[in-house]
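ok so i was messing around last nite and threw this chain in just to see what happens. nothing serious, just curious
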Amino acid sequence: MSLRNQVEGTMKDVFLKDGLAFCMVDVGENIIVEVTEASQKSMCLEKGQRVYCLFKSASLKIY
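result:
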């Protein structure tokens, strides 16, 4: 696996719905990161935390 896309940001908010956690992250622009609710809990993702988002460009969705 090759992850070349990395951004650092701050968690602005977390929304839970249907077993998923949608994390709003400020990386200079706001992005929404989707993880399972179980992953959100195990990583203790909370508002105000500094996080690193690692992603493959194929998983990126632009609206």
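not much to say yet. The first strand starts at residue 5 and ends at 17.
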